[in-house]
Specification:
The protein is α+β, with helices and mostly antiparallel strands. It has nine helices and 18 strands. Strands 3, 7, 9, 10, 11 and 13 form a six-stranded antiparallel sheet that branches. Strands 2, 6, 8, 12 and 16 form a five-stranded antiparallel sheet that branches. Strands 1-18-17 form a three-stranded mixed sheet, covered by helices on one side. The longest helix has 23 residues. The N terminus and C terminus are likely disordered.
């Protein structure tokens, strides 16, 4: 799509083939970079791409969850100037802003950056047999033995093999692209015949909490947090197919049918069906020693508005946020309060993810807590 006015003897390609055919051609583009190049050909091409919202449409094709966004906001470090433009100009400026935001979002959605485990904390489990020894927090540990003791989560026992269980986790960002999930059933090496307590299948849900900011709770040594994972506390924006599990003590990988944009940073592993009966009580259990949600965080360049716990529909773009250093955050003034609070939130979560990986689970700070408690060295990790 390099044909401009000069290549057609003074005719613009868009005028030459007409708007309907041009629209059909542009809608065939499936790479955000191609749309960006097309918008750079000429002013008429740029206006055509912006007015038809091709970048937004492409993002929705890549990740249908993008349709949950009803508005975009560009958060800058300086206060926006008041405008006296007409309503027609204002509509174009709004579409132009969307074009910029969705252009960068599209690039982030198809990025080839390597995946990592995005799980930050355990929110809770549907049941736990012996708490806290068999807590869901154990599933953050990649090993099935720690300090010569077994490390795993165990459900409560059931007579019915169809009773499901679930494990719910907080991801390291409010916006994550998840490609695959991994789960390892636990092999009870301390029981006769070394039984493996796998589920029959696993299904994944992703979404966000409906609780007010700062009110989300996590598993502690005193509380297994079963009430916090009730479905009425969450809005699920994606549900995967059911993936059959093997009764094998290996980290099993389940590739999602497509990359999924998790809006709100919550993922639930639904464990469907039981396969193994425990000899001592003649009941069926599910046990997991490790779980992962593999993907990439889109923060700090992209955040969501969490002021309304029932509505995560505002997509915020922070140009240049990934290039900030600690001095930019600590020395911010009132006019950039939103910018700095959003970036500080991301860096706090990144810091906790690093500590969690190195030292084990840590308690999550509420938004009202003092971000200054994180040291300069911590935030450079």
């Amino acid at each position: 799509m390099e044909m401009g006015v000069e290549d057609t003897g003074g005719w613009d390609f868009l005028d030459w083939v007409g708007p309907d055919t041009s629209t059909c051609i542009f809608q065939l583009l499936d790479d955000p970079a191609d749309l960006a190049r097309a918008a750079a050909v000429s002013r008429s091409w740029r206006r055509f791409v912006i007015e038809n919202e091709f970048c937004k449409s492409l993002c929705r094709r890549i990740c249908p969850e993008v349709a949950n966004f009803t508005r975009t906001v560009v958060v800058t470090r300086t206060s926006p100037r008041a405008s006296s433009e007409s309503s027609r100009d204002a509509d174009f400026r709004s579409r132009e802003r969307d074009h910029v935001v969705y252009s960068y979002l599209g690039g982030a959605l198809v990025s080839a950056n390597p995946s990592m485990n995005c799980i930050l904390h355990c929110i809770g489990a549907s049941s736990t047999d012996n708490f806290p020894e068999e807590t869901v927090d154990n599933t953050l540990e990649p090993r099935d033995r720690v300090n010569h003791r077994a490390s795993y989560w165990s459900s409560g026992g059931q007579d019915d093999t169809d009773v499901p269980e679930s494990l719910t986790y907080r991801l390291n960002s409010d916006l994550c692209i998840i490609d695959e999930v991994r789960i390892q059933p636990f092999k009870a090496y301390f029981q006769p015949d070394n039984p493996i307590y796998s589920a029959k299948a696993v299904r994944i849900r992703m979404g966000h909490s409906k609780l007010p900011p700062g009110k989300e709770s996590f598993v502690t040594d005193e509380n297994e947090n079963q009430k916090a994972i009730a479905d009425e506390n969450y809005m699920w924006t994606y549900t995967s197919p059911e993936f059959p599990m093997l009764q094998e003590n290996v980290l099993q990988t389940f590739k999602l049918p497509r990359r999924v944009l998790c809006i709100g940073g919550v993922v639930k592993f639904e464990l469907l069906g039981r396969m193994q009966k425990q000899a001592t009580d003649d009941k069926y259990y599910i046990c997991v020693c490790h779980a992962q949600a593999m993907g990439r965080s889109l923060s700090p360049e992209f955040m969501v508005d969490t002021s309304d716990p029932a509505d995560y529909s505002i997509l915020k773009y922070l140009p240049g946020a990934s290039n900030l250093v600690i001095e930019d955050i600590l020395n911010g003034d009132a006019k950039d309060s939103e910018w700095h609070s959003l970036v500080a939130r991301h860096r706090q979560m990144r810091h906790l993810a690093m500590v969690n990986m190195l030292l084990g689970p840590v308690h999550f700070m509420d938004e009202d807590d003092d971000v200054g408690g994180v040291t300069d060295d911590d935030m450079y990790m």
